[in-house]
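Page 47, continued from p. 46.
Same chain as before, 393 aa.
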Amino acid sequence: MAKLSVDKLDVAGKTVLVRVDFNVPLDGGRVTDDTRITASLPTIRHLLGAGARVVLMSHLGRPKGKPKPEFSLKPAADRLAELLGQPVAFSPEVIGEGALAAVRALKPGGVLLLENLRFHPEEEKNDPAFAKALAGLADVFVSDAFGTVHRAHASTEGVAHFFPQAAAGYLIAKELEYLGQTLVKPRRPFVAVLGGAKVGDKIGVIQALLKRADSVLIGGAMAYTFLKAQGHAIGKSLLDEPHLELARTLLAEAPKLGKALVLPIDHRVAAEISPQATAEECGVEIPEGRIGLDIGPATALAYGTAIRRAKLVVWNGPMGMFELPAFAQGTLAVAKAMAESEATTIVGGGDSVAAVNQSGVAEKISHISTGGGASLEFLEGRELPGIAVLTDA
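Result:
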């Protein structure tokens, strides 16, 4: 997994094109969560300190290949300028004469952000001519948008072919260092905690982690499909019927592999899904007319014990409908156990990250991944095109 690091580049007086992930939430032209911009600062500051001209490119939202003012990256440029404490130039053009003129106007130690890459349909099509035009803006390429490396787009994969070397920024290097531990010689016991709605969404990662982890703890709505496969009553809980047979197969496979596939032994349930719903507790069998919405206290205790005893823990997906306070306890209990564990702890996926932030324990987690889809595909052991294209160390 070792890739050429931004550290190893000679960038003094050169123009460096950096793929960042500024896909941030906006409200009325203001960035409401700058986590992703902040994550890019170490790489940007390093390049500026080394005397480079820094040209940043990113996508934002899904404008579907057309310029749309509400998807402009200008607010991200303004927020970056505040965080860096220096001006950040903005180019309304991504390629062409306007973009080239904006790049030429940069002095060493200057920063420029290009407009939203996805205003061009060629970006998502990985169009070679578009990738070549992007490459024509700079002397050196650095990739630092981990959340996008599972997509073979012009700015993540195509552009790298037009440079003699393509380096990883600090953010990608950190992701590879931590997530790489789950693939190569993981410390044991290695515990995986998986939540989310449907078995179908996590097939690859469940199969991959059953082979590598010592135990896989299942929560969230997908637990009900596994419980149904075991013959338990699940009331009105969500059932991923097309994957019921697969759930049976995975349950049968786990003992043969010498692994534990662990399911909830109790639940928090309600008659309906609503903010006013009252949480009721029940055992493994969910009564008729009730919907399972969270793991119960006994399950939370058991999962917490397994996490605290582990040496490596990876968590993806909430344990229940944690956006409703009555059904957040299971997810928050996992977050708390992760924070208290002496294991290397890795959290990936938007909802799990939100839960960690909500419970105020983010600083106590070894690594919070910035890429939900990318981290899932990495855990599956799939090749990520935006990583594969980078120069080996």
